[in-house]
Amino acid sequence: MTLLLERSLTHLDPVAESFAFGPETKDVLPTFQTRCTVVRLGSLDNEVLGVPRWSTLAEIWTEPGSAVRQRWLDNPVVTVAADDGPGLVLATLMPVIVFGADNEAHDYARSVIDGVRASCASVLVVDMGHRLTGHTYADVATFGFDPARGAALLGLLTGLA
User: Fold this and answer.
1) Among the listed residues 106, 100, 87, the one whose alpha carbon sits nearest the alpha carbon of residue 140
2) pLDDT at position 92, please?
């Protein structure tokens, strides 16, 4: 999907209302509210987030024991760093959500996203950079990855917000 971003969804958590969504995202979002493969790009820095590379991100963005955490922890996670190459993510029939920061600014991130989009049926790309560097490599832009934005995003992606 190559989408121009707009603020088009209604009835969201107040923090999620600040996100930008592609015009088709609201129609396909329920596809991603089931079990998904989560792809974490290395541009979403583990040291800044304070989590290990294999973290699902629920550990820092959700309350222990919450329904959102329980649902999100069920998702398998694939992490891809700049030196891993785009082939690390295998084709899957499950929906795939790709998390990164400043996706358009990183060659390897663009390669991974292009590869995932070419080999998987349902792909949602989230750019969590503080500024949006382009519209081609983001279906959802959060403009940051602080705990409030992360919690709002996982609530949205699990359908439990």
Assistant:
1) 100
2) 74
